[in-house]
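Continuing the batch. This is chain 6 of the set; chains 1 through 5 are on the previous pages. Same settings as before, nothing changed between runs. Recording input and output for traceability.
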Amino acid sequence: MWKKIVDFFNGRGSKVSQAVGKSILVVDDGEVELKFLSHTLEKRGYMVKTAKDGEEAFDLANAGDYDLYLLDFCMPKMDGRELCEKLKKTAKTRDVPVIFLTGSANPTDLVNCYDAGAEYYLEKPIGAGALIKQIEMIFSQLKDIGHTGQQDIVDSPEDED
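Output for chain 6:
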């Protein structure tokens, strides 16, 4: 019984089926965090692409089709807030949900994340189970409203970037 409880909190107790076909862009300048996040998500069946800074992430976001962006707040070259603002101003990427992961517990940073256009905010460190559960909840909410990700997005002439 304890194994089932531990597996549940380590993210192995939830359905893998939600992950099938879902692609997540993970952006973090910390090598350890990037490996942890990508390994955790890939183990659950998500397709993961990684970037170490905001500029690289913006290029990858525009070149690929993602269902979710998982962004660090503080990064070199282009921080998470600026990246999120650019993603939300671009037709191809604006409807993809953003989760900010940050080590900051500063309430101002929380407000800044939401002001930049993020839908979700999680504080580091976060366990694998909590991260997976949050992502599954997001995809479940999107499914409930009929939004399935990039395939729902049509380029518009309003594209600013």
